[in-house]
Amino acid sequence: MKGKVYIVGAGPGAADLLTLRAAAVLRVAEVVLHDDLVSQEVLEMVPHDAHVVNVGKRCGHRGITQELINALMVGQAQCGKRVVRLKSGDPAVFGRLGEELDALRKAEVPFEIVPGITAASAAAASANVTLTDRRAASSLVMLTAHNARQAPLSESSVDAAHATFAVYMPGPDYGRTARELIKLGVNAGAPCVLVSHAGRATEKVHATSLSALGSIAGVAAPAVLLVGEAVRTGEISRPVQSALVEHSSNTRSQIS
Ligand code: SAH
User: Fold this and answer.
1) Which residues are registered as beta bridge partners of 137?
2) Fewer CB within 10 Å, N- or C-terminus of the chain?
């Protein structure tokens, strides 16, 4: 396992939502380069003598560039280190994986990708809903609010009325995100759940409709928004109801 980069999905935060492979790789890491959203609980699995660097853009090194991250990753592997590039959720979902793979391939550094549970999956589990439903949603679209604002799907073949949208980075202007989704053809009355801190002890599920989404305030980041008929929950079974329902979901405890 020497001189190799492991690009590992850290999942939504709880250590017991890591894959067994991710846990095994973390336990033998020599260098760990992680993003801001990777939880302390997961970082605690890394050996004490490992060199751990937060390369996140917010809490980590201010002004750190993607090029610098690539150079660190490649350089440490070329020194013979077992490097873990640790990303929240699944590395292949809004994680700049493409740029890092380009750098690794160019430098001919051996690598392995270890998938993780993405925020949309964790959020659906927190809200006790499904992402697809053969009766209501035959497609699942993952997008960022940034892309939603640019309406990238307006010319696509996705049938917005029969799709589930998982919107990453949906805030802080939820009203705007809702308007853009409506522009894409999503029904204003469509049910949605906004899940913050999915898969963590601090998780919160807000169930509402798209038209009422703008009135949501004070949602702790990170949060992901799920929209569409498939995510309809008991609280919003009547389409006219617009009141915000907030509940802490059943947190996972010991398996009984
Ligand atoms: N690769 C990650 C996504 C990184 S983009 C994944 O697969 O989940 C960062 C965005 O992901 C956040 O702004 C938020 O929208 C979402 N996110 C990440 N972790 C989350 C969590 N525990 N709960 C809710 N949303 C989360």
Assistant:
1) 133
2) C
Q: Within 13 Å of residue 28, how many CA atoms lie on the same side as its CB?
A: 13
DSSP state of 216: -
**100-153: per-residue pLDDT in tens?**
999 999 999 999 999 999 999 999 999 999 999 999 899 999 998 755 445 455
Which of 16, 88, 114, 203 should be mutated for ligand 1, with most atoms under 8 A from CB? 88
* Dist CA 64 CA 139 (whole Å): 36
Quick check: is 35 catalytic? Answer: yes
For residue range 8-40, list pLDDT tens digits in order. 999 999 999 999 999 999 999 999 999 999 999
Distance 46 CA to ligand 1 centre (A): 21
Cβ–Cβ < 8 Å for 88, 62: no
| CATH match for 4-114 among 3.40.50.300, 3.40.630.30, 3.40.1010.10, 3.60.10.10 | 3.40.1010.10
Contacts of 256 (CB under 8 A, 6+ apart): none
